[in-house]
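Exercise: predict the structure of this protein bound to magnesium ion.
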Amino acid sequence: MIEIEDVSFARQGTPVLQDISLSIPAGGVTALVGPNGAGKSTLLSLMARLLPLETGRISIAGKSVAHTRSDALARTVAILRQDTLVSSRLRVGELVGFGRFPHSRGRLTDEDRHLIDDALREFDLTGMADRFVETLSGGQRQRAMVAMAYCQGCDCMLLDEPLNNLDMFYARELMRILRDLADRQGKTIVIVLHDINHAATYADRIVALRDGRLVSFDRTDQVLVPERLEQIFGYRMEIATVDGQPVVLHHR
Ligand SMILES: Nc1ncnc2c1ncn2[C@@H]1O[C@H](COP(=O)(O)OP(=O)(O)O)[C@@H](O)[C@H]1O
Ligand SMILES: [Mg+2]
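Solution:
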């Protein structure tokens, strides 16, 4: 479980998060949505202590993010930041193996190698393990980065816009893998998504921010109503239901 209590944060004197409180239950996929600049990346960074907490408290699986040693925190929560750059002279297997760093400190054990193979398999990258990252397509590269975060072996994964620049095929493939990891392994996945229909299809619940404030936190089907979407995104959308699944439509 992720507990966020009374979190506020300012950048250069401007508040970018204000009085955020929510508790995300363990297990499942939580989509973090909201317009550009809403504070999504800032909130994720605070959750993984990439930024220091100024006001409020955050704990993950009972560990206070502010007061937990870095090595213990790195075994609790893995984060993939928005626009992470990797050296293209790395092989895919090496990149994924970086996820083991908090455990191995660079000296991989047999168990680490086993877990790297496992991560490659989960993300359908086994056949690409020896290829240089630069030879992958954008979709495969993005999948390798998420595999690296997975390989860290944490119950909780925070993913900031991992679908960026992916075509529909690769976006769907990655969402299906993440959904499967939540279902089979009980992973707690918090993922920043821009396409509300990805949230509609794959997320159990939605956290919506706007202008640094929490505007919705509820089950996916409860958030996917026109009034609430308008509150979040600032314009009216329609919701249709296809095979029991909500689909968000935009007016011209
Ligand atoms: N490094 C930074 N320095 C100053 N302001 C920043 C920085 N990063 C983000 N901001 C500002 O903080 C606000 C929230 O940004 P961010 O958390 O990146 O939003 P989102 O991820 O929802 O697009 C925005 O107004 C943005 O301009
Ligand atoms: Mg962002």
